[in-house]
């Protein structure tokens, strides 16, 4: 089985590092990081990850805008996206599902269960 490749788009380097370490350690996935929406879009095009973890609240281009641009791009529109967000309410989850976002994971997340949460949302086996 091929190693899964995850793109983490978050403006906080600490979050990028924690996600990278736990996903590589727990699930043996390859993790690519980006610090902004525009950098993330560029990396998604060139790297073609199996999934994207996307922060909602970022300066310049927020996660929802970034997601829209990923969806509008034929090269990235089929990559599943999971949001990382500090606030999740029931109506947010409904809106995200309508947009085509796989799920949302609350920040701060538990590093030990992050890989399982991603795998469960995408029907992957670890």
TrEMBL record:
- Any Pfam family hit: Response_reg
Q: Which residues form the Response regulatory domain?
A: 5-122
| The keyword Phosphoprotein is annotated on this UniProt entry | yes
Q: Which residues carry this modification: 4-aspartylphosphate?
A: 55
The record's listing under InterPro entries reads: Bact_response_regulator (IPR050595), CheY-like_superfamily (IPR011006), Sig_transdc_resp-reg_receiver (IPR001789)
Database matches in PROSITE patterns: RESPONSE_REGULATORY
What is the name listed in the Swiss-Prot or TrEMBL entry for this protein? Two-component system response regulator
Species of the source: Brunnivagina elsteri CCALA 953
């Amino acid at each position: 089985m091929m190693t899964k490749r995850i793109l983490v788009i978050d403006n906080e380097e600490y979050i990028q590092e924690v996600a990278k370490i736990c996903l590589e350690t727990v699930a043996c996935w390859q993790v690519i990081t980006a610090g902004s929406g525009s950098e993330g879009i560029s990396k998604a095009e060139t790297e073609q990850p199996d999934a994207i973890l996307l922060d909602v609240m970022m300066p310049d281009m927020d996660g929802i805008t970034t997601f829209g641009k990923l969806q509008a791009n034929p090269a990235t529109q089929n990559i599943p996206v999971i949001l990382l967000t500090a606030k999740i309410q029931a109506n947010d989850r409904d809106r995200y599902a309508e947009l085509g976002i796989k799920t949302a994971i609350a920040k701060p997340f538990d590093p030990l269960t992050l890989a399982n949460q991603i795998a469960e949302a995408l029907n992957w086996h670890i």
